[in-house]
Amino acid sequence: MGGLLAWVTKAKSAAHRGDGPRAAGIVKLLLDGQQRMTSLYGVVRGRPPRFFDGNVQSFTGLRLHLDTETFAFHQPMKMQGDPLWIDVTGLMREGTAGLGGFVTALSACPDLAPKVVGDYAGRLSRLLDVMDVDLHVEEVTGTVKTLDVVVDIFNKVNSGGTKLSKGDLALAKICAEWPEARDAMKPSSRRGPKPITTSTSTGCCARSIRC
Question: What's the CA gap between 145 and 45, in Å, rounded?
Answer without folding.
Answer: 35
